[in-house]
Write a structure and sequence with these properties.
4-stranded antiparallel beta sheet, single chain, two-stranded antiparallel ribbon, Gyrase A, domain 2, 191 residues, alpha+beta, Topoisomerase I, Chain A, domain 4
Amino acid sequence: MTTIATTKEALAAAKTRMEKAVEDFRKELATVRTGRANAALLDNVRVDFYGTPTPVNQLGTVTVPEATMLVISPWDPGVVAAIDKAIRASDLGLNPTNDGKVVRVPIPAPTEERRKELVKHIHKVLENHRTAVRNIRRDIKEAIDKLEKDKKISQDEQKRSLDELERVSHAETKKIEDLSAAKEKEVMEIK
């Protein structure tokens, strides 16, 4: 971490890092399967493209023609079989079909058991991101305490800064929890 010279810098760094944690959580939630087709679902699937693990969305266009179907139109028709194989090998539980030109991925509604597993996964990811926010708060608190110890700021300024840091970390944690609750509701919803 870079050295922090003022409380303003410390709070700005805290807010930036915590917002990155929230954004990372948002991206992670996008890859959780809900039964509705979403192009982000395939973000973590890597295709062996001439010996290089390549994301599906870099090999072709991923479209959502209907709520329960993804269609991947590769730019190179020779990679259709590799995309099909990579999706089957992923832990998404999807069963793609291909006609030699495009790969169609039907998105079945998850079973009750699978929904519960997904909710557990969401809770695990939520806890990891809560921990990340707490670690950021701890780092910034240590930096502010060091500024006070080195007599660069007064105790009053230290107290104000720590209160502000607490407020920011609570707000960012609440954003993460709200995202989690919304995704959990979406996963448990039966279509």
